[in-house]
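pinned: reference chain
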Amino acid sequence: MSTTDPGPTTAIRPSDPARTPAWVWALLMLLFAVIIGGVSGILAHASDVDVPGAILAGGAALGGTILVELAIAGYLRGDR
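pinned: its structure tokens
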């Protein structure tokens, strides 16, 4: 029996965040903000707030989440 060398193996490396395209990070931030805004609106409506008030609460949570995410992204990139 002969054994063959499979050759060099490639190690699985985690992706480098600096090499990930900016649109991917923007999409992830937007998705997270929409989830937070939606949950906030649903919880506001569940606590006997009328529908327009719940929409305003969800929109405020979405906007606040995006602002915090952009501040964190700017800090991590070194834009101070």
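why pinned: The CA atoms of residues 55 and 63 lie 12 Å apart. Residues 21-77 form one domain.
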